[in-house]
Amino acid sequence: MASPTMWRKMLGAELRKLRNAKGISAYQIAELLGCSEAKVRHMENGRTAPSKAELRLLMDHYGLAEERRVSLEEAREGARKRGWWSRYRLQSWFQDYVGLETDASRLRTFEMEILPGLLQTEAYARAIHLLGSHVTAPEEVERQVALRLKRQERLIADPPLEYISVISEAALARCAYQKSLAEEQFAHLVAMSERPNVSIQVLPFDVGLHNSMTGAFVLLDFPSGTWPPAVYQEHAVGGHLGHDRELVSGLSEVFEDLRSRALSESASVTLIKKYAQR
């Protein structure tokens, strides 16, 4: 079942198609609804969902048949529900990402300095959030750790999320210096690498310069016919979720290049075990 985020995006995309098919501008729809053009854009981009009255007015304006109306009304109902993540008080820039992660069928991630969130132990996740006090207030740390552990359930769900990760050796090296965390965290990486839906490859120091030295990213793919691929990039004080085809295509090429230069899965596990012994 799709999350509210996916329902909003699918409904918004459908409303945009209907408007374009009629050759109507967003400004004209704003005039019809008595709202701002920005609100119309937000509805069509899936950031917000129309009210019941707004949707009915739009369906009347587009002259939709009853069967199509029922479909859009069901989508609106799904879009207006609260996602399971709403109780975690997420910052706005992260809410849509978690919603889409919930619906994704495959994630491809590249990390440079920290280990991927879906592969972190509870202790490691807590340490990361405590360090990021400029993003997570101290009183919110435990809530955010719980959220991270909840997100990890996708890896063991039925069906499980396909997860392909390339990790810079730098993330392993930094973890190794946190002696209170390292043993458990490295053991967890090895255990997760044994799952058929999880692939972990390490990009070693000896590859030298590479084509994503400016930052980490996540590529999200969704079940056929639901939503186009997306990319998420996080920085020190926020994050950005994008759907631009050129951006997604470009970063997909970057990811495949990183993956081709990284150690094999078995060699990566061997390297992780070596760090665990230090």
From TrEMBL:
Superkingdom of source: Bacteria
Gene3D superfamilies: lambda repressor-like DNA-binding domains
InterPro entries documented for this protein: Cro/C1-type_HTH (IPR001387), DUF5753 (IPR043917), Lambda_DNA-bd_dom_sf (IPR010982)
HTH cro/C1-type domain boundaries: 15-68
Any one GO MF annotation of this record: DNA binding
Residue runs in coiled coils: none
UniProt name for this protein: Transcriptional regulator
Species in which this protein is naturally found: Saccharopolyspora thermophila
